[in-house]
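Hello support,

Our group uses your service weekly, and this is the first time we've seen a run hang past the timeout. The protein is Vacuolar protein sorting-associated protein 37A. I'm not sure whether the cause is the sequence or the server load. Input pasted verbatim:
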Amino acid sequence: MNWLFPLSKGGGSSSSPAAPLPALTSLQQQKQRQIESLRSAHSAIAEIQKDVEYRLPFTVNNLTININVLLPPQFPQEKPVISVFPPIRHHLMDKQGVYVACPLISNFTMHSDLGKIIQSLLDEFWKNPPVLAPSLTSFPYLYSKPAGMPPYTPQGFPFLPPYPPQETNRSIASVPVAESGYTTDKPAAPSYGLITDLPLPVPTTEALLQVGQNGFTYKMPDVPDAFPELSELSIPQLTAMNEQEDILLEQFVNLPQLKQIIMDKDDFVKSIEELAKKNLLLEPSLEAKRQTVLDKYEQLTQMKATFEKKMQRQHELSESCSSSALQARLKVAAHEAEEESDTIAEDFLEGKMEIDDFLSSFMEKRTICHCRRAKEEKLQQAITMHSQFHASL
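Update from on-call engineer: The timeout came from a worker crash unrelated to the input. Re-ran successfully.
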């Protein structure tokens, strides 16, 4: 057990207490929290070098992309370096299609969450799938490890095909680059290095499918490794052909693969022309239906205005016939009948009216007044009972 409890300098017994482990600094603790966040958010992530480099495979639209996360020595005070292979075209990437240049990385601080940042990157790749950068058939990242960084053992991945080893004496400038504006003026790697010896995926034949805006896929003809037409020519003839551009162009035009592409192009042009003619024939019908829709919309607008007016009228009538409105009207009518009876009584007392006329008109007004008051009281009782019933529910 001396491997767990080391002996003292004086050769003491194995029961002596073990030497305490050095405590982690604040920067190391923050770094470990970021690494734990990265692991908990992505269970498929692989550790290439402990606390330094991690790799996450990601597949979208049958394209496998490796997302490499490199943590500098002063991380998280320094920003992480996130790169991808193979190089891709995407609005989050730099011009070379290698490094992620989104604001989440450029604005990285000690309070950022690395796991959430990688998840946001994956979500954006799902929403806007990237495409392979052209003319990149080899792995261009030949970086040197910084001084003082211990070497790590390359790890194989069973889900990735083996990638051919690179030439160690090959410089970055000699790597072929796409003709679409990708340059190698910018250093391809930070000073503290990146992966060099790991197996990486090779672009599959599915990446050679040209996808159009309408979703149509076109597979380019297979280019053979050798051309039988040139095997019968001698080296001087091949040299002369290479120097004479018109002969070389003629030989190129006669290739069956190019002829096949030209034939396919002509077929596509014809099919597009036929489709355009059919669309033009449908234009009158489409215009008639469009006019019908406009007429229906105008009719709908008029019916909607009429409906809104009737709904307002219905609301006004319902408000005037509501229980509270009827009660208020009964109360006002009873008060008016009472005032009229009082006026008749005053006229009688002043001698302006005969007794027979007084009795008939006074009794009539008083009867109306009492009937309206009784109806108003019954309506009030009904309203009270209705409100109590709803309150109990």
